[in-house]
Design a protein that fits this description.
Elements: E1 5-10, E2 14-20, E3 38-42, H1 45-55, E4 60-66, H2 70-81, E5 85-90, E6 96-102, E7 108-112, H3 125-132, E8 135-140, H4 150-156, E9 159-163, H5 172-180, E10 183-187, H6 194-204, E11 209-213, E12 219-223, E13 226-230, H7 245-258, H8 263-277, H9 290-298, E14 304-305
Parallel strand pairs: 1-4, 1-8, 2-6, 4-5, 8-9, 9-10, 10-11
Antiparallel strand pairs: 2-3, 6-7, 11-12, 12-13, 13-14
Helix pairs in contact: 1-7, 7-8, 8-9
Length: 308
């Protein structure tokens, strides 16, 4: 069957309420005056990956559980406005939502509403199979219903990527995703030894490449048994917020990978996209386009072999 979808994104659709705070952690006080204000907008991990791949010209389809509520309307509008196909499975518990506390330096603390889902949530098997059958690649967000879809995606023969975010390298929940994916992204923020965790993922699972992002320090790429340090790219404007930077990195990496580029070049694309995302205020959603991405990577410093 001919592929109609380049990237099928599973999970991670939701709404964030952005609250700017004077610093993180928030100083204990009876109240704080918040500027530039409090804004609620659609856009969580899966939304940002879908936005990123779509902006780069990849045919993208997003699948998730979404409620019949105001937050769900915001998610549906985001996809409609950006021309991203969306299959919204009804979620009686409501659409995923979170509060993001954003400090002056762009760092954030996310508070997720754990009531917007249940242990019995599932993505319909027929829907997953049908979309996977016409997809080249699936990016799976680590939200609870998506773990059960991994075997279905594997049966369909699509390649799989996932983002473990700030995994500590120990929590068993993340391992299901890490060991099933061909391409694994994670943040180095909670890891004392990123290289050891990356090599363990590659040895125990099926990952051809593992990427650990490290903010201003760039990223580490493990591919073909070699660990390479990929420097951070120069942001095209002042850094205002790190929200969505990891998702932008993943989207650009997939753009390169599906275009036949080697892993190091893909990581360099990711670094440029991640830097661009850091210049976008948390109250907005925007992704780098192909021309700006390719121009940015042309001036990016190549990676060097490193012992993270």
């Amino acid at each position: 069957m001919t592929a109609e979808i380049d990237v099928l994104v599973l999970g991670g659709a939701g709404v964030d309420t952005i609250v700017h705070v004077p610093e993180l952690p928030v100083p204990l006080a009876d109240s704080h005056m918040i500027r530039p204000g409090i804004v609620t907008r659609a856009g969580q991990s899966g939304d940002f990956v879908a936005l990123g791949t779509s902006a780069l010209g990849l045919r993208t389809h997003h699948l998730d559980l979404i409620g019949d509520d105001h937050e769900g309307d915001l998610v549906r509008a985001l996809h409609r406005d950006h021309g991203i196909a969306l299959t919204a499975v009804p979620q009686p518990c409501g659409t995923k939502r979170a509060v993001n506390l954003v400090g002056p330096d762009g760092r954030r603390l996310s508070l997720y509403d754990a009531t917007r889902g249940s242990e019995t949530d599932r993505l319909p098997e027929e829907t997953v199979r049908g979309l996977a059958a016409v997809s080249r690649h699936a990016h799976v967000v680590i939200t609870q219903p998506c773990a059960d879809a991994l075997p279905l995606l594997r049966e369909a023969g699509v390649t799989i990527s996932t983002d473990l975010h700030d995994w500590d390298g120990v929590n068993p929940y993340h391992e299901t995703f890490a060991l099933a994916a061909d391409l694994v992204f994670l943040s180095a923020a909670a890891l004392t030894d990123p290289e050891a965790v990356m090599r363990r993922i590659a040895a125990r699972g099926r990952a051809e490449a593992v990427v650990a992002t490290a903010g201003a320090e760039g990223a580490y790429l493990l591919a073909d048994g070699e660990l390479t340090h990929v420097p951070a790219a120069e942001p095209p404007a002042p850094v205002v917020d790190s929200n969505g930077a990891g998702d932008a990195f993943a989207a650009a990496f997939l753009y390169g990978r599906l275009g036949g580029e080697d892993a190091l070049h893909c990581a360099r694309l990711g670094a440029v996209a991640g830097a661009y995302a850091c210049t976008v205020p948390s109250t907005r959603v925007a992704a780098v386009g192909p021309e700006a991405l390719l121009a940015g990577v042309a001036g990016h410093v190549p990676g060097t072999l490193s012992g993270a």
